Please model this.
Amino acid sequence: MAVLTDRQPGSCAIHRLLVAVMVTLPLAVAHAQGYNETEVKAAFLYHFTSYIEYPSGAFAGTSAPFVIGVLGKSGITDALQQAVKGKSVRGRAIVVKQVSIGQELLECHILFVPDAEAKSLPRILEILGDSPVLLVGESENFAAKGGMVGFFVEQKRVRFEVNLEAARRAHLTISSKLLSLARIVREKGRD
Amino acid sequence: MRSILIVCTCLWAFAVASAYSEPSPSAQDLTQLSIEELMQIEVVTASKKAQPVWDVPASVYVITADDIHRMGATSIPEVLRLVPGVHVGIIDASKWAVAVRGFNGRYSNKLLVLMDGRSVYTPFFSGVYWDAQPPLFMEDIERIEVIRGPGAALWGANAVNGVINIITKSARETQGTLWVSGAGSEEKTFGGWRVGGKLGENGYYRAYTLYQERDNLEQDREHVPNNDSWLVRRSGFRADWNRSPTESFILHGEVYTGRAGQRLRVPDVTLPGSRTVDDRYTISGYYLMGTWNRQRGNITDTLHVYYDHTGRSPIELTEFRDTVDLSWQQRIQANDRHDILWGIEYKYTSDRTFAGLLMSLQPPSRVDHIFGAFVQDDITLNDNTRLTIGSKLENNSYTAWEVQPNLRLLWKPNEKSVWWGAVSRAVRMPTRAERSVIIQAYYEGMTSGLPMISRIYGSPDFRSEEVTAYELGYRSQPHQNLSLDVSAFYNVYRNLRSFEPADPFVETTPVPHLVIPVYMNNKTYGRTYGFEVSARWNVTNNWTLDLGYANITYRLQHAPDSKDPFNLHSDSTSNTPRHQFNVGSHLNLPRGWHLDTYLFFVDRLFGMNFLPSYYRLDVSIGWQVTDRVKMRITLQNLLKRDIREFEHPLWERDSIPERAVYGTISWQF
Model:
């Protein structure tokens, strides 16, 4: 490239500074910062499994697995599978599966609704009724619109809001520890 | 030395890339963290940048606060280099040429620039005095929206080829005290101080003061300073008050003053020839702006009022201007199908000018009133399709009524992609200069024993320039780490400005000489077409690449009866590069370090003088020392010492940007 071979006198000071900076910078290596939002949400979902109390009857049997469903195709399914690999909650294995709108939603204990599926919320609420399924989403005002837990990002950090009325309707008890970390929102009426 | 530098750069880039491109700890590791710890870790939001504009049926590019911060830029035009389709060229230390989709120049006039809804272009030439837009607190900018293509149906006349909308943060987001200071080789010193606090229960304010001093650029390769140094100060405040969750007030005011330099080439018939004049001039201004916003059910009302005063006294012409603008708009989300936006606007603008060495206006003072009304309906046809139809109707004192309609269609075949198309008409009103200016342009040599100069006259018959634009766009997220935005345009122009020479005449003072009068007219027409591509790729969690490319082709010609001597063949007089591309690499390093590298390519320009194409490489290294302290070093023009980015208006001498370095430290407490 002509630009690179073009020689100009002067400005050596800047060159030296640059070289010095470039040589010394990579030495400052430590662990990397900044995580993938999806992976962080997956880790949250894993934690949620132990902070929710389900009514008796929510599980088919004592050895029935804890099912985390992800509605539609989403990158979080892989991240979740990674996150729960080899883990259990209260003696139950954790299973992650991709689900689509229909009766299989009722087989989940946690149902995650990715942003792309947010518009299906009214339909989901209709199917779930008051079944004991923790409904988690990431779209705007997900909790206020009838979901139970909604993720949002504030100052680059993942936070969540909780709609207590919706959880109560589903007979779910959310631990006070989780609630103390959440932003509590009120129902704005479903739309 | 240079080869060492390049080798070092490459080695280093590889070292850094290999060290940090490893995937971050997997989700499995994250589950080891407690839920409290999870809440504290920072995340990279994948492609969220595209989200706010995902559903917009127009070619929109958003520069975020993070983009600005990472670039380490100290002025708005420098940031605009990031946007494909925007051409930015340094004219001198305080002046830039900025245009969207072509027609660039110091007095580029087809672009509307707004700061929080306040128009900062001057009706004098319909462009922006960038030297009178001293640095904002760059930290206060929330985002800059760049709309390529006509935005006239909403924004009104002059939003012909684009709109740049600079939006600052609310006072609530700028609480506490911020101190910023910096110094460098060209950016000699700059700094500022901001305090933020609460006003009662629901109110917030910030007050700030800042200054910036820039060194002279060089006049030529022999390092002769060009007398164009720039010193500006700005102080202001913003208060935000939420009376209730649905009702808010904003009050915003600023005062600024500055001194800038320039070196002019002035035709002088007594020499005869041109002489060089060094000029130091002052710029100053102030404004006060209020906004009231209320939401009631499905209706949102916004009332926006501002008063703005500007003054400048360069040796070519002294100009003062007062503007009052009132606008009211209402958004009605009528039902699931109709989202209606309508509004009315009144603008009063009054100027006083004093003839200078090169220009005068006839009459020297003038008052203009502009009335406008617009309506737009965003119609949801079905789950995947939206139709936007709207128009602005505007009355100005030059050309009476102007209608500027547009029609836009958006189609979402699936959640990962969006198509849109638009047809719109926009006009650029005649400027004050085009109607009434007299410019002593050039010394043209001796003819029949007499010195001869050319003199440009504005014309009372000058009409609006018009464009009909056809646009098509596509956005897609083919992978969760990749977002893509493509837009194409085909613009048909009518009544563009031409310069029509007439028969020379003789003047006897100060010495007998010939004058070639050149009248501004509307005898140019033609079309431009091209496309822009931008992509953001989150290569790893710590490394993001931005890619941009823009292409434009000109097909302009003069009307058969035009005598315009300027050659419009292909790209000439257009002053816009045919190809531009940029690559931005954003690397998050450990311990709070950031490395941001920008490579820009700008194709050659065929303006008054030919300017070769160039590459420009800027590097910005940032370090978040603690939660409160940030440091940054920015290096500009690393590849070549003196790139001439833009030719100068007729009467100025060339200025050449030098290689530059500056450092910034900011402390938040």
Notes: The mean pLDDT of chain B is 86.
